[in-house]
Amino acid sequence: MNSPKLARMHTAEHLLSAVMRIFFKAPGNLEFHLHEKKTKCDYAPVPALQDSDFSKIEELVNQEIARNHKVVDRVITRSEAGDFDLWKVPDEADEIRIVEIGDFDAQPCRGQHVERTEQIGVFRLLSHSMRENGRIRLRFKVE
User: Which residues pair with 23 in a beta bridge?
Assistant: First the structure.
């Protein structure tokens, strides 16, 4: 079932994960639950996040949304996947769909996305909590 709100949330999750990877040295999301009302993602940033980091995360994601990146996908073979993190890709998959968000991010994904990042709206971090093993759970929505 196609859901414009879910596409917005999913594309925002890609941007959040890229921000966490690029700026906070978190190796991608470790777990996530995507929902139309709010989404939660777990990360293991190095070093641990400080209170001031949460407003910075929100600011960085919203900056990328405002850049109005074009969101496109392409299909590659597993042998072409090289440096992509394939932990979410089934082992038996020979073809892998890569979702590219402008020059900011490219990740394997089978989900639904917007065509341009401005369609996401405003990204809002709702809460954060510490989990086991240095993980942090971020909950967010888009308005």
Answer: none
Sign of dihedral through CA atoms 104, 38, 134, 56?
positive
Q: Which residues contact 81 (CB under 8 A, 6 or more apart)?
A: 89, 96, 108
pLDDT tens per residue across span 73-115: 999 999 899 888 888 888 898 999 999 999 999 999 989 999 9
HSE at residue 97, side-chain half, CA atoms within 13 A, is: 9
- Domains belonging to the chain, first-starting first, are 4-142 (3.30.980.10)
Find tokens 């042998």 and name the residue: 79
Q: What angle do CA 40, 45, 49 make, to 5 degrees?
A: 85
134 phi-psi bin (left φ>0, alpha ψ -120 to 50, beta other):
left
Cβ-contact 28, 46 below 8 angstroms: no
Q: Cβ contacts of residue 66 below 8 Å, gap of 6+?
A: 117, 118
